[in-house]
Queue: 4 jobs
Job 1
Amino acid sequence: MERNIGLANIIAKILNGKYIGEYSPNLETQPNDFWVLHGPISPSTASSLGIVYPNFLGGIIDPLHSQKSVFHSPLNDPEVVPDNFPFQFSKSLVTNQIVLPGYVAFSKKDIYRAYDLLSKAKIVSRWKNPLFSSGREQYRIYSKSMLDSLIIATDETLLKKYGIILEANVLEDANKEGCPLSLSGGYLDLSNKIYSYVGEMKFGETGHKDRYLGTSLISAIGKPQELMGNVPEKFNGEIKMLQAISESLPLLPNFCGTRINLNFVSGKIEQNNGKIGPQVLAATEPTYRPGGATVAELYNVQRLLANPSQKVVTAQSKIHYGPRNETMIPSEALVILDEIVTRGNRGPVQVWAEPI
């Protein structure tokens, strides 16, 4: 919440407007007001609030379609599939090999079927609950009994609505560091002008190896392909996938998004015969809302607008958990949170962006 208020103030400056406050039923709004959405909203909600393109940051999308469930296809002849599942969209991603080998299942029977199909292909399965992010509710399946336990604990109502994903487990990044390389990329559409970016996420600190610490970003004006040739070659595959996904988004009925972010994983598929499979790059998680790297995305937008001759600019978002160190945040940084106690009173947090 506090982060998005900071982002709203930055966007107001970029668009030469002013921040008027957090929405409440008593807040008087105007047709051209710009909205920073805390999360994706349904088309019906957007219509009731008068939110229209391009006057928002985030996504207007069906609740199911906003989940990573739709990045995989159901099995052939599935037992259960929601009526509004976007088959054409998921098929386009699978056909173009944008996602890891895997399936989405909406019944306990189909979860077992998905596990058996991956096992027959010698692939170790990873369980993903699409309602969680940042690695939460994700598990490498060590045995059939572990799968049994996860299935028993699964809420059938949520399962029928949002599904469970079983996909290939990924090990080792290309740099042999023992874990997958976490990349991100996406684009912002601010006032009908597109800014694309790619980057690499950083995780881990003492006692919190999965804690997100920020993202290093390279940004350019234009669609994702505008980055090609202006960024290190290691991002080329990611850029091609970003472009392919952006071209597939119209297959989501009634979708309208102005901030689309994709997380990517680069590593090797784990096989159940003790061997390591081929190197892969795949999109794993879509986001249609402001995120942890958005401060750096907006920082780069400001710099691109101030320096139109520059093809690309670089910056990094940073998150620090704990009391502020006076020398920690550089003077040129763009700060959106400064010692705000947030996320369940876990202590003070600072969030900012700085040039690389």
Job 2
Amino acid sequence: MSQHASAPAQQPSTPVAVRWAAGLLAVYSLMVLAHVFTLSPRDSEFDASLLRTAIGRMQGAAAMAWGVARGRSWGRWLTLALGGLWAGFCALALVEYAGTPAVAPRQTLVFGPVGIMALLLLGGAIGCLLVPRSRLWFRRAAV
């Protein structure tokens, strides 16, 4: 019996760009939840609606990260669509907050760096998924 006959079929390894995209989405999902707790005032009632929204975004980002890491095409398309939408809203919010002096200084100091990090994380994940090697890998995984 030859060695090649007993060896299992070798799966193509996950491209580095796809692993980076999944990691960036996982970090983004944790950052979304941490951001809610940094915005909550220490001396007043916690806003539960902010927490519900953040948990929904965290679950969405975690699902995208899981789908991308597993090579599912729905994870890639969801990341491109929903991640692009979230990044667009974040960019609009950054532009809006930068132009309004009436925003509380604490929220501006917290939202500015977090908004920029969110843009970088989502933009990086989307960019990693648009690399030709990762696009080819998702096409092969779908077949």
Job 3
Amino acid sequence: MSVEMHNGIQISTMLFAERSRIFYALTAAEYIEMWSGGTFGADCVYCDSDQRSGGHFKLALTRSRSPLIDISGIIATYVPFDKVHYLWEHTLFGRAGQSEVTITVRAGKARTFLKIAHVGALTADEHAFFGSMWQSAVLWIARSFARNLRQRLLISGPKVIPFS
């Protein structure tokens, strides 16, 4: 059997929203439950996040009472409203794996710059799943926190850039 591996995923985009709101939506359990619930038709979502360096993180999605993904790990670095670095252990499609996720948020004059880097030896299925998951998260955040209707209409899908 041949397994195609990818080094990771990178998403960079500009959003019309406050830096603190974007960061909170990507790190707080109650928001993670909201944006991850629609990913791949999950009907049950559980998330717990201790937002401190050394804190633990858990996300579990199920569909039709079958596990879809189970992620657990620790928060290696946490700089409020600026950067968070997760070390993940995940089970997806029956395969256990490890990866690292770094979320960086920088404020601009009228927009906020967001960069998500998800690295690790990912299979093609994992790459597709996590790429879709992060795209869904960014679109949900962009639409939820845009300051006005015009900004919501300007939102286009973030592009997933594979690491080479």
Job 4
Amino acid sequence: MSSTAPDIFAHLQASHGNMSVAQLLVWANFIEASVEALRRAEAAVRAASSAYGERNGWWRKSQKKNASKVKVRIPNEEAITDAIGRELEGIRMEASAGCPLYDMNVVFDTERPRKKQVSIGPNALTTDIRVYTYLNPNIDLRFESKIFFDECDLDKEYLSDRGLLRFADQESPYTDRIIGGMIGYSLTKTRSIWESAVEGRLPSVGCASAVTRTQLSCEADATVVCDVARPDPQLPKVTVLHLVMEFETDPSSRP
């Protein structure tokens, strides 16, 4: 683990100043390692897109017209998440001493039950991607994912009570930790366009504040980040990272 504080550390310190420097530094380095692994998994899924596209369940049953009025097949959100989880498992298995994933004993899971909720079994609410370590029970990073196809997906899904607002859910919070993440699976516009759209819309979300960008070492461009307030003022706010990954429809819907 690096002893140098990543840029995300400054945001965490401003938002969670009641925590010790040592605790925040652990979180900052864990975020860096997690996002780097997620980007590697994204690249692996894209490289194997033909093989994944042939698997039962990859595509939604119904097609949809894109901006060019062409009917296209759209990947299932759950299928993309499953593929990312499989690639993350391979990346973790290949890690050796000196790699943060190995040194921090990082574990990746998909579709895991939320820690606090009233439902159980088939009615249990899940988190899409969970990243954690057995070495520190306080480190538990959970990501919610949504498809970006139409413009309306940003407000109706990503920023809704089925997306970002799940972090502010009083009864079944998406996480009980101070950090979480959102991932938009872009099937149309570029990653940078969707990131700017997310950044532009976040100030209109009532529970979101401190909207800014932070530089992660594994990212060429700064990452959008915000804080989400919980209904219970006794609980700390959640700092949420916003990532966008690019995948394809069939045929492609990119310009």
